[in-house]
Amino acid sequence: MFYLMLAILSSAMVSITMRISEKYITNKMAMFMSNYAICIALSAAFMDWKNMSAGLGVPALVLGAISGVLYLVSFIFLKYNMQHNGIVLSSTFMKLGVLIPTIMAVVVFHEMPSWTQVLGITISVLAIVIIHFEKEALQESNKKVWLLLLLVLSGFTDSMANIYEQVGKAEGKDGYLLITFFVAFLLATVCACRDKNKITGKDLLFGMLIGIPNYFSARFLLLALGSVDAVLTYPMYSVATMIVIMLVGVFAFRERLSKKKAIALGMIVVAVCLLNM
Questions:
Q1: Distance between CA 28 and CA 163 in Å, rounded?
Q2: Other beta carbons less than 10 A from residue 266's beta carbon
């Protein structure tokens, strides 16, 4: 549970840093390129190079490459959906992607949640919908099918960590992360070079600042999956991150907590309690 809490805090820091960067960034792909470069450096630093054959086995190479592609493709789909369906619906369906690794944990890996955990997962999903969903936005969305694709891509991207945990070797986790971020870096570099916007020092600086918590969120999530069932880890990881982000928004950015968000926050607290029972 300790690693899960660290993963939650790291994930929240990624979102908070990205929010701060919004008014400074001109080339988002360059920011992601820099972010993945830092992730590669940290992965290499934690890599056991003396036992490289174990760290870079077939599961790490194959699953890491797939994960790296999914990382960037899901981001591109998120960007596309924000342009055509708005940030509200895009955020909703991306967050609802947590259903895929949760269902996969039950159906594929035969993890059986208790009835309190099932109730907690259900409340978590409802809270996500309450926070982000607006009926008018769905009626006005231009490309509804792309929202479903975003949900699926986001869900499978999150699922890769648990798939590796199930089929890969414990000593290969750092190799898996290294390959993941290396592939994502290559793809982001190609996209950044094709972007018409100029690459600035601020793009690269904020990318590096995001890269540190981004790496540790992935690393701690992998470590958490080694000790906590995925059917509990993923919903907790998603909703607890939302709690941290909302609280930081209220106290640090002076955001007003609407009645809808206050209700959802209360639901999340109840869901977290149920998930831990």
A1: 29
A2: 11
Give the separation between CA 1 and CA 7, rounded to whole angstroms: 10
pLDDT in tens, 227-248: 888 988 998 888 888 888 888 8
**What is the rounded average pLDDT for all residues in the chain?**
84
Residue with tokens 């409340």: 123
Q: Quote the longest CA-to-CA distance of the chain.
A: 57
Distance CA 211, CA 33 (A): 9
Alpha helices in 96-142 (DSSP H): 99-107, 115-132, 135-140
pLDDT, residue 52, reads 64
Look at the block and give the residue holding tokens 């149920």. 274
The whole-angstrom separation of Cα 202 and Cα 169 is: 38
Tracing tokens 């259900």 back to the chain, one arrives at 122
Please give the residue range of the domain that contains residue 61: 2-275
What's the total number of domains in the chain?
Answer: 1
| pTM of the entire predicted model | 0.86
Decide: residue 107, CB within 10 A, 0-12 exposed, 13-18 middle, 19+ buried: exposed
